[in-house]
Amino acid sequence: MKVGTTYKFDSAEQEVCDVWGRVIKIKGPHTFVKVKDTFLDKLHSRSWYVMDGYLLIYMLRGGYIEERCLIEVNNNEN
Prior knowledge:
The chain is mostly beta strands. The chain has one domain. The chain is built from 2 helices and 5 strands. Strands 1, 2, 3, 4 and 5 form a 5-stranded antiparallel sheet that branches.
């Protein structure tokens, strides 16, 4: 997943965490933009995204959501 790349999510209910570590359940259509992960994030397998342009969330790096639920969007398709 490249920093700055936009992805669309449109799946059944999945769990992600916000910046404070609270679990958030998401489902249906959302837009994710990949942001840079720190060294510690990589150690803890966290992958950060901005969801719908305002909410910073993280998910398990290389986990089910990242591998199966995120579809890369061309910038001119937004």
